[in-house]
Design a protein that fits this description.
298 residues, alpha/beta, Arc Repressor Mutant, subunit A, D-Maltodextrin-Binding Protein, domain 2, 3 domains, seven-stranded mixed β-sheet
Length: 298
């Protein structure tokens, strides 16, 4: 197969069209004209020999090939940015700096990342961390990394959500599930079940299916924070992982589910190339140090 050379500006054009959903909006973003963007995309498609966007009256949407190409384009552009930052960092005395894009599900963003980012900022003030909260359903945080929208994702990792083959990562901690219910309720297991979409690993569901006391959820909330609020207001009980129960209101009571309780693994994922960058390595070190510190304190 003959090599195909794509210039960084061509990659930026692909990303802009995908992000803006059309050539005109992409042109505004790039500071050029609609015809220039259209011409550039046609040129890229000729080089690759595939159609990257379906054109229509409502804009341009990536084809399957286009979706894959745009993901690679984002990742290549990110590595070009890292090349410049790290070369300058070495020249300045091995300074670790630059943007660091993190995708995390809600409870990890609220309760796991803040102390980690505080330590990271103290050690490497040149790192500009940005956290995006992503629902851990479908592609989830790992999908953000694979699509080139995040450098590292805090993800749930397990048999039903393994690390995608194009990514690398590791488990940081295993958190148990517990029963949470209104404080002082005489029979919390008789209460209606409150649940949310992200609370859905196959292992947990299998455990739930074996518990004849757990009813079908009668209330479904948007996220774990809303579930906890409903339980604290007396609407029912819930089965939630430890991170989600951090800082639970005094009006709730947490009851251990015993030695056979379900657990979920929380870890990180990144791309093989970003795993070698200084900023991502620094973040992983702080994540591991934080978890190790928590274990040592137990």
């Amino acid at each position: 197969m003959n090599p195909v050379d794509l210039a960084p500006q061509e990659l930026r054009t692909l990303v802009a069209v995908a992000a803006e959903g059309g050539f005109s909006a992409a042109a505004v973003r790039l500071g050029t004209t609609q015809s220039a963007v259209s011409h550039a995309v046609r040129g890229i498609e000729r080089k690759l020999g595939v159609v990257l966007f379906d054109r229509g009256r409502y804009g341009a949407r990536p084809t399957a090939a286009g979706t894959r190409a745009v993901a690679h384009a984002r990742r290549v552009l990110r590595m070009l940015e890292a090349l410049v930052i790290e070369a300058r960092g070495v020249a300045a005395g091995d300074e670790v700096a630059g943007p660091l894009r993190i995708a995390a599900f809600r409870s990890a963003a609220l309760h796991l990342l803040p102390p980690v980012l505080e330590r990271l900022a103290a050690r490497h003030p040149g790192i500009e961390a940005r956290v995006t909260v992503v629902r851990e359903v479908g592609p989830g945080t790992a999908g953000e990394v694979a699509e080139g929208r995040a450098d590292l994702g805090i993800a749930t990792i397990g048999t039903s959500s393994p690390i995608p083959p194009e990514l690398v990562g590791d488990v940081l901690l295993e958190e148990p599930y517990a029963l949470v219910h209104p404080t002082g309720h005489p029979d919390p297991r008789s209460l209606p079940l409150v649940d949310w979409m992200e609370n859905c690993t196959s292992y947990t569901r299998a455990w739930w299916a074996a518990q004849d006391w757990i009813p079908t959820a009668t209330v479904r909330a948007e996220d774990d924070g809303a579930v906890l609020s409903m339980v604290s207001s007396g609407f029912g009980m819930a089965i939630m992982p430890a991170l989600s129960l951090t800082g639970a209101p005094a009006t709730t009571q947490i009851t251990d589910l015993g030695p056979e309780r379900p657990t979920r693994h929380v870890g990180y994922v990144t791309t093989p190339e970003l795993a070698a960058t200084a900023a991502v390595r620094a973040l992983i070190r702080e994540l591991r140090a934080m978890v190790k510190g928590q274990v040592s304190a137990v």
